[in-house]
Design a protein that fits this description.
Number of domains of chain B: 1
Oligomer: heterodimer
Number of strands of chain A: 12
Radius of gyration of chain B: 13 Å
CATH architecture of chain B: Sandwich
CATH architecture of chain A: Sandwich
Shape of chain B: globular
Largest sheet of chain B: 7 strands, mixed
Number of strands of chain B: 11
Shape of chain A: globular
Distance between the termini of chain A: 41 Å
Structural class of chain A: mainly beta
Mean pLDDT of chain B: 94
Number of domains of chain A: 1
Order of helices and strands of chain A: EEEEEEEEEEEE
Helix content of chain B: under 10%
CATH topology of chain B: Immunoglobulin-like
CATH class of chain B: Mainly Beta
């Protein structure tokens, strides 16, 4: 079974600064996807960024980028130029190929962006 | 284009009762999954429906059952409710392959 660990329950960052959220996972699989989801107070889970394990290049989406270290089983999210709208719970999630819907989530990191 | 919708928004039940939650997938999506998110936790996968059949199931008891209709909408049924079933229930939909799952806003179930 896969496990996803987010060791930072809460983090705070000032507007316009950069913050990095940590995620580690444990799996014996070689083919999988990793995701970061954002869940604002409205509760709607929104995909932030996705990384395919077979790709060595780290994924980027505008102000969001990841540092994917496959050997270390680490998948951190960097948010640059933080905005007040980034305030939310952030979940790291794992998807094993062949289980096309079964996302395994971490416990989340609550990010607060302050003025 | 409406995204994933869920009803009701909130629900209060008592122990032993039964509950039905509903989900309409995003237009063009044919696969629906359900997740349970307890307070302060990440979502846990309950099951997935495709072509009106349960295709995958997480570690949930048989009290949790579901259904998918020909229009791809889905229901989650929970029988003999326990206090521990209190949670946010999320529905997610996608189309074939490993495309992005789109989540609904969830139904908050409180069991008293």
């Amino acid at each position: 079974a896969q496990t996803v660990t987010q060791s930072q329950p809460e983090m705070s960052v000032q507007e316009a600064e950069t913050v990095t959220l940590s995620c580690t996972y444990d799996t014996s699989e070689n083919n999988y996807y990793l995701f970061w989801y954002k869940q604002p107070p409205s509760r709607q889970m929104i995909l932030v960024i996705r990384q395919e394990a077979y790709k060595q290049q780290n994924a980027t989406e505008n102000r969001f980028s990841v540092n994917f270290q496959k050997a270390a089983k680490s998948f951190s999210l960097k948010i640059s130029d933080s905005q007040l709208g980034d305030t939310a719970m952030y979940f790291c999630a794992f998807l094993r190929l062949g289980t096309a819907s079964k996302l395994t989530f971490g416990t989340g990191t609550r990010l607060q962006v302050t003025l | 284009d409406a995204g994933v919708t869920q009803s009701p928004t909130h629900l209060i039940k008592t122990r032993g009762q039964q509950v039905t939650l509903r989900c309409s997938p995003k237009s063009g999506h044919d696969t629906v999954s359900w997740y349970q998110q307890a307070l302060g936790q990440g979502p846990q996968f309950i099951f997935q429906y495709y072509e009106e059949e349960e295709r995958q199931r997480g570690n949930f008891p048989d009290r949790f059952s579901g259904h998918q209709f020909p229009n791809y909408s889905s229901e989650l049924n929970v029988n003999a409710l326990l206090l521990g079933d209190s949670a946010l229930y999320l529905c997610a939909s996608r189309t074939g392959g490993y495309n992005e799952q789109f989540f609904g806003p969830g139904t908050r179930l409180t069991v008293l």
